[in-house]
Amino acid sequence: MRKSAALLITSLSLLISHSLYAAPLRVAADPVPHSEILNYVKKIDPKLDLNIIEMTNGANPNELLASGDVDANYFQHLPYLHEQEKALGKKFVVAAAVHIEPLGIYSHKYKTLADLPQGAKIAIPNNATNLSRGLWLLQDNGLIKLKGERSAESTLVTPKDIIENPKNVKILEIESPQIPRSLDDVDAGIINGNYALEAGLSPAKDALGIEKAKDNPYANLLVTTPVLENDPRIKQLAKDLTSPQVAEFIRTQYHGSVIPVAGSAHD
User: Where does the protein end up (predicted)?
Assistant: First the structure.
């Protein structure tokens, strides 16, 4: 009788455990590096049934999340998420901060930033958060000076906030995915890490100037909805993405072009 009861309890436990992951977890992600990292998670945690939906058609992953077409997304940093919450009138939940893709300055024409000529045309992402982020990167590299001090609470800056511009650089605001294809037409371009990788550029090697990882507020996030915040599949994916194994994969795969936030063997 006791043996039968024990078997029944074991069977029920297995059934409950299996039911937690019965439905695939649908995650919208950019192809590089996000989908690549998620595919690695599939290898190390096959029990977590991931359905990775690559965003290659211009769809907004936050709109998909809000409408229930996906369970989570993995492509954005916190300032952009806050901007999207306002635009969509929705609240989302950050499940994990995973990695940083340093913003970099690239050129097909010049070897160093010092070589940029007077009146150089610099392409920069046209969305509010990355525009601000790019302008701070130009200041960090001595090309411009902005009014005010940078802080996590500071208002986003625009080209109107430039107070010193010794080379009289011209800021051209362009859609982020278009900037790698525009490098032949400008003197330099500021490119997000994922788009640089997709274009065959190595941020760690090819960027003439690059964001620092320390105290960087632009970590890429695993994001879900308040309804799914405590879903065991979400919690398991968050645990996997911040594990030492995934951190080591990121370091080995991207050679400093993508930087893990946590889970490093050296933490």
Answer: Membrane
**CA–CA separation, 30 and 7 (whole Å):** 45
Q: Which two tokens stand for residue 206?
A: 């090819």
Widest pairwise Cα distance in the chain = 88
Q: Give yes or no on whether 25-102+217-260 and 104-210 have one common fold.
A: yes
pLDDT of 153 = 55
Stretches where the chain sits below pLDDT 70 are 1-21, 151-154, 263-267
Answer for the pair 96, 72: CB distance below 8 angstroms, yes or no: no
pLDDT for 21: 66
User: In this predicted structure, what is the pLDDT of residue 173?
Assistant: 98
pLDDT at position 158 is 95
The angle formed by the CA atoms of residues 127, 131 and 136, to the nearest 5 degrees, is 160
Query: Which CATH superfamily groups domain 104-210?
Result: Periplasmic binding protein-like II (3.40.190.10)
pTM of this prediction?
0.75
DSSP annotation of 112 reads: S
**Hey, what CATH topology would domain 25-102+217-260 get?**
D-Maltodextrin-Binding Protein; domain 2 (3.40.190)
Q: What is the residue extent of each domain of the chain?
A: 25-102+217-260, 104-210
The strand pairing partners of 93, in sequence order, are 224
Reading the block at residue 47, the tokens are 């029990």
Using CA atoms, how far residue 38 sits from 29, 74, 239, in Å, is 9, 9, 12
Q: How far does CA 7 lie from the centroid of its chain? A: 46
